[in-house]
Amino acid sequence: MLVAIPVSAQNVSVEAKIDSTVIFVGQQTGFHLGVTVKNGQKVQFPQYQPLDHIIPGVEVVEILPTDTQKLDDGYLRVSAHYTLTSFEDTLYYIPAIKVKVNDKDFESKSLALKVLTVKVDTLHPNQFYPAKDVQDNPFLWEEWSRLLWLSAAVLALFIISLLMFMRLKSEKPIVFKVKIVKRIPAHQKALNSIEEIKAKSTTVTVDDAKAYYTHLTDTLRRYMMERFGFNALEMTSAEIISRLRQEEDQKKIDELTMLFETADLVKFAKYSVGVSENDHNLISAIDFINTTKQENAPTEERIEPTVTEKDKQTIRNRRILKWSLVGIVLATVALLVYVVWELILLCF
Q1: pLDDT tens, position by position, for the chain (348 residues)?
Q2: Exposure string (b/e) for 244-283, b if CB count within 10 Å is 16 or more?
Q3: Is 14 within a domain?
Q4: Are residues 190 and 217 in the same domain?
Q5: Are residues 173 and 214 in the same domain?
């Protein structure tokens, strides 16, 4: 037992602390007693009541509930809390406070409390002044100048972006469209035209012969221009025959030569032809078209749009204007957010 007593005493520690060691007269401060004990030991703090004095001049205002905190190795920390005040300006010495643990006294360290007085005008006791109102901070140009200039920059950027948008909106964009046109093969158009000739000219009189052969030869000339790629409309009959001799067999060319010669005689020499000769020439024309036609000719034609240098320059200008507008809008938004944030910090 004699050996256990000092060991038990060594396991108990008492700590006292005060929230503020300097207060004004009538001001309150917290006073705390903490005891570290082993689990199961009984702790008894000093019994104070409101208006009791720890020492003369230092008064207990309130006793707060005690609390317990678990520590390592089975130890506990038990704390008591008090609210103190004083109404006399002086330096108080608070001696060690005794705390009982298992009916044995343990002491804390001593503390000091300085109480200050409030200066009072004793020469003019009847002069009272009301509480001062909230004062307005003076306007300082140095604090606001940067925000004002930045706000002006935001306004200028907004106006510039608005003008750029209106300019971009007023100019219609150039739209290029690729057209796909259905194309009738050259031989089909020629045969359709010959069918029209046949339908209109069941019987060809002398007066109608010139129109008949003009229509027939024009149909052949257009077909040759599309089929062989030379301008047959601007060539004479002899030039056409000479050009065709490079493309087709001699027999077909001879029959076509007779057709063109007959047509020239009818148109320029008022040559009279019979019905059988007209039919023979018509069949020669149809036979020539069927012999020289291209079976796998494309039926669709892709027409690409024509882009002039002026159109290209307009497209470049619109692209530059559009990306410049995007950049200015982003800069305006970022600058506006920055100004608002700085304004909030300055006001609050």
Answers
A1: 233 333 344 578 899 999 999 999 989 999 999 999 998 899 999 988 988 999 999 999 999 999 999 988 889 999 999 999 999 989 999 999 999 999 899 999 999 999 998 777 777 777 767 777 777 667 677 778 888 898 999 999 999 999 888 888 887 666 656 566 667 777 788 888 888 877 776 555 555 677 877 888 888 888 888 877 788 888 888 887 777 777 665 656 766 777 777 777 777 767 666 667 777 777 778 887 777 777 665 556 666 667 677 877 888 888 888 899 999 999 999 999 998 898 888 776
A2: beeeeeeebbebbbebbebbbebeeeebebeeeebebbbe
A3: yes
A4: yes
A5: no
Residue 121 lies in a domain: no
Is position 219 within any domain? yes
Residues spanned by the domain of 329: 140-177+306-348
The pTM of the full predicted model, rounded to 2 decimals, is: 0.36
Whether residue 313 sits in one domain with residue 172: yes
